[in-house]
Amino acid sequence: MKKILIVKMTSMGDLIQTFPALTDAANANPGLRFDWLADEAFQEIPRLHSAVDKVISVSFRRWKKNIKQCLVSGEVSEFIKELRSKQYDMVIDAQSNLKSALVSLLTKGRRYGLNKTSVREYGAHLVYHKKIGIDRSQNHALRIRKMMAVFLNYELPSSLIDYGINRTLLAPLPGGLILPPKFIFVTAIASTNAKLWPEPYWKEVFADLINSGHELVLPWWSPEEKERVLRLQDNNSRIHILPPMNLMQKAKVLSMASGSISLDTGLAHMAAALDVPNVSLYGPSSAQLSGTYGVNQIHLSAADPSCAPCLKNTCTYQGTVKYEPACLANIKPKQVLDALYPLLF
Question: Model pTM greater than 0.70?
Fold first, then answer.
């Protein structure tokens, strides 16, 4: 039985999009098991996959804030000791940037990754014993599925995509939380303002859905995001704002939804992983490269202005617009409703 270490540290969506590749590999090689190296902020996510035994967490983000203290405390040396405590048959760098390549170099095992034309950051390929090229214009999840199939020598399956999630690991909901019997999960928050859809558009969509008999559930993480979803709720009793919850609790709520509307966030990919019908919106980001991957996943991409998708976290468009960002403002509420309603019946 082979034991494989997956190096995929960030971000939430990227980790989730790695799941189908693990499912393919485990189905093609009965008994195959994985360990997974992930950033401590996302260490809950790999545990959801049924073929993952151990998650090793790394704290790069926190270490950068006070590297001297972390070195003196022995935290970094303890991490390296844990990383090197096991001999792996394969160490697969599924992130392919310089940071993941450096961590891969510290492991004990033969290292696998992408070649110089396929890696995210040039130079990462130099640490791999075996490397292959995969077209970078494909969806991220598909690229990892192809990479795993080549490295483990099996044909990419044509069966339905399976994220391999162990749903029993989704966290119980907080006591006292009462959800509607049927609801639409709406992720109206995003990591940057450049990925936000105009609030008046959200309110137009909400009004139509509520008039059609639907109720809505909105998550949030930060105080700023809470203020945003409270504005969107506008004291409407059919729009429910979730209380403070961890990721596994939010995933549990999402798994119960009839459908979902998402911006380009990790929760959009969680919807795909949980087989929740989902409409996701893409402006500065590319649905072709990083869109949700699975059944009943509809992507709405901005057609204008011509700079979209710019793949930037800050909008630099100089034209006159009514709402910002200009690209997402070109996706209209009717497009979202026309895409969502067929998924709900």
Answer: yes
